[in-house]
């Protein structure tokens, strides 16, 4: 790796951005939060702000770093996963959101409690927490890569561990200050920085390539017989994660789980004035996500031409190649952009990282309070008059505790992702399936049928998690060949299998009349 070209002006821009984010959190914190206001913002957030916040959270550092890597190393088929996302938001908007508002919940797992009892609600909430630590911890690890490269000049494990601690601390500070209101408004700021910096990088990169549009398309569509601008993969190979079939089946279920059963994203929908507004916010978020995701993928394609096609670049070829596809955008950002731009890019990367980390911290804190602390406090002190103040204090302590948990799992991911050999995008999405399969199976049972009880719901959550573990390559390869199933399943198919098994198990329970 060449030494990072991160100068004083870049540091000034990055520090100014971080201070601005903390200032927004402090400014919002001046409005005194009471009870659920810390988690629901008084149910008064505008639709457009909630939509942007959902988008910013869903993108994360995995998209900032992993999006360009995905198209650089492969093609545009990742975009087809949005087909499943579009189908999913329609389902969530028409079935899930109305149920959340009808029950007036703070945590979406309260819906399960209303139908299947307290044990089922607590089990679902706990499964969400496990899954969110997995998913957000993986994202936290990913943003530590460029941070470590800039600050320490390497991506050695010790440097990554220190970077993880710094990033988690900053995100926890402003999340604890202002609650969900601070999260949403800082997400709006961070989404603008994120999209703006990537768009600027795309234009600069385009200007550096001495070829017109037709020549670039020819170079991308005829790379040793591989068409890198392919949008749809019709393959039935179960090991491929981004095909038309995984988009229609696996990704539809995955996205329903992400928007409807994951408190991290679903909590945004609860801050709107009505179920109708919450439904429109998620639909609008999906619509604007298409061009934004495409922006990251186009950047990866142009980076491929820039680094891998010297026949197109000619004398303008950079003369070096990134030694790791995870660093392809980072290499360009640090070495090929004019002074000041790396600072803006790093601010954009931090925007992606913190918009996902802050929301995860708030969501896990909200489920901790709504599903565990609040019932416990009311049983212990039913006559307490200072409940709101004590609840906000407990919420902030929960944010700090979950920040520690995220940082710990991110440190585990330092070794795990490298050993898996997966791209950052595939790794980030894959770890989420552990919790999503079981959660979606239980939610579908509760919302679509009159079946399911506490015992079957808890069993379904465990079965969903165990099914994903059983389909992991290291586990699968030990017994699958003996039954004639010697192949690797991509994570969307794992989602389909885990959800089906979980749904079936949950249906076995009989609900009381």
Features of the shown structure:
19 helices, single chain, globular, 513 residues, mainly alpha
In short:
The protein has helices at 8-29, 37-40, 47-73, 81-103, 110-116, 118-151, 157-208, 213-221, 244-260, 263-269, 275-308, 310-313, 328-335, 341-380, 387-420, 424-448, 454-470, 473-479, 491-507.
What does the secondary structure layout of this molecule look like, with pairings?
Layout: H1 8-29, H2 37-40, H3 47-73, H4 81-103, H5 110-116, H6 118-151, H7 157-208, H8 213-221, H9 244-260, H10 263-269, H11 275-308, H12 310-313, H13 328-335, H14 341-380, H15 387-420, H16 424-448, H17 454-470, H18 473-479, H19 491-507
Helix pairs in contact: 1-7, 1-14, 3-6, 3-7, 3-10, 3-11, 3-14, 4-9, 4-11, 5-6, 6-7, 6-14, 6-15, 6-16, 6-17, 7-11, 7-14, 7-15, 9-16, 9-19, 10-14, 14-15, 16-17, 16-19, 17-19
Description:
- Helix content is 76%, strand content 0%.
- By secondary structure, it is mostly helical.
- It has one domain (8-379, 409-507): Sodium/glucose cotransporter.
- Helix 6 packs antiparallel against helix 16.
- The longest helix has 52 residues, at 157-208.
- It is globular.
CATH topology: Sodium/glucose cotransporter
Coarse shape: globular
Domain module count: 1
Low-confidence stretches: none
- How many DSSP helices? 19
Order of helices and strands: HHHHHHHHHHHHHHHHHHH
CATH superfamily: Sodium/glucose cotransporter
User: What would CATH call the class?
Assistant: Mainly Alpha
CATH architecture: Up-down Bundle
Question: What is the average of the pLDDT values?
Answer: 85
Radius of gyration: 23 Å
* Main sheet makeup: none
Strand content: under 5%
User: How helical, in percent, are the residues?
Assistant: over 70%
End-to-end CA span: 66 Å
Structural class: mainly alpha
Number of distinct beta strands: 0
